[in-house]
Amino acid sequence: MDSIKEYLNDSGAVTVKTTENSLEKHTIIEGGHVMTTVHETERVDGEIVKDDIVQVKSTNEAEPSAISGQA
């Protein structure tokens, strides 16, 4: 699953791009100074088996921040 989301804040637009396959998920955050929280849960038969919270702070508009993880 691939997604691109754009958010507006005081310093302009922030773009969050996510690319996911069966083993990995990559998120790139581009844009102004922003603290982003990614909360991801995975359920199997109604039970939460994975609950990740990741915070990323973009401090330089020229260089995107990136997070990645394995499912």
Written description of the protein model:
The protein is elongated. It has one domain (2-70). Helices cover 0% and strands 76% of the residues. The two termini are 13 Å apart. It has strands at residues 2-9, 12-20, 24-31, 34-44, 47-58, 65-70. The protein is an all-beta fold and 71 residues long. The strands form two sheets. Strands 1-2-3-6 form a four-stranded antiparallel sheet, with no helix packed on it. Strands 4-5 form a two-stranded antiparallel ribbon.
Highlighted features:
single chain; 71 residues; 4-stranded antiparallel beta sheet; elongated
Helical content stands at under 10%
| Residue-averaged pLDDT | 68
Q: Give unreliable regions as ranges.
A: none
- Major sheet summary line: 4 strands, antiparallel
What is the terminal separation in angstroms? Answer: 13 Å
| Class from helix and strand fractions | mainly beta
Strand fraction equals: over 45%
Total DSSP helices: 0
Q: Number of folding domains?
A: 1
Strand order of the largest sheet: 1-2-3-6
How many DSSP E strands?
A: 6
Q: List the secondary-structure elements in sequence, H or E.
A: EEEEEE
What spatial form do the alpha-carbon principal axes imply?
elongated
C-alpha Rg (nearest Å) = 13 Å
